[in-house]
Write a structure and sequence with these properties.
It contains seven helices and eight strands, in the order E-H-E-H-E-H-H-E-H-E-E-H-E-H-E. It is α/β, with parallel strands linked by helices.
């Protein structure tokens, strides 16, 4: 498991430099201010599309700006991957459209998000098509760690793992570092 620590870290930039040194980081497009520091000191970093932050704040997302952000950082030696835009409370159709709009020149860096309120069949299709899939808590399973959330995770993982518990692709849990 690779724990990606979210940014930004509050306080002074030297605190961020000390904290992220040698760690893995996730930089949100909604709060990208510390990315120069993180890119310099972290072991690796990934880019978060900021959908959760924008959704919570009610602000509009500029996906074209996010594509440019990913394009700017994807060649950095510490860069690993980027979340494909998603709509937290959207449905399967809306999120599939966002995947289809992901720029072809960034395709190999992209990681789609499956939301727990979406059909498990969609998760299976994503796992067959992608190297890595992110799992996002949503709907009645919006709070990680609750008993209902664990039941849903068990259902999802049962659908995409073999008899030895190995998943079809790599998985990343959003807001699941606890």
């Amino acid at each position: 498991m690779i724990p990606y620590h979210g940014s930004p870290l509050p306080g002074k930039s030297d605190n961020a430099a000390r904290f992220y040194a040698g760690r893995h980081a996730m930089v949100s497009f909604a709060h990208p201010g510390q990315i120069p520091i993180i890119a310099d000191v972290s072991k690796t970093f990934v880019l978060d599309n900021g959908a959760f932050s924008f959704w919570k704040s009610g602000k509009e997302v500029n996906w074209k700006g996010y594509y440019e952000f990913v394009e700017k950082w994807c060649k950095h030696p510490a860069f690993e991957w980027a979340l494909i835009p998603d709509c937290i409370d959207g449905g399967e159709e809306e999120n599939n459209k966002l995947i289809a709009q992901w720029p072809r020149d960034l395709w190999s860096y992209g990681v789609p998000v499956w939301h727990l309120h979406e059909p498990v069949e969609r998760l299976k299709r994503l796992c067959h098509a992608w190297i890595r899939v992110a799992l996002g808590s949503s709907g009645e399973w919006a709070t990680p760690g609750t008993s209902g959330w664990w039941s849903r995770i068990k259902e999802a993982l049962s659908a995409i793992t073999d008899d030895d518990g190995r998943p079809m692709c790599k998985l990343h849990g959003l807001r699941m570092l606890d």
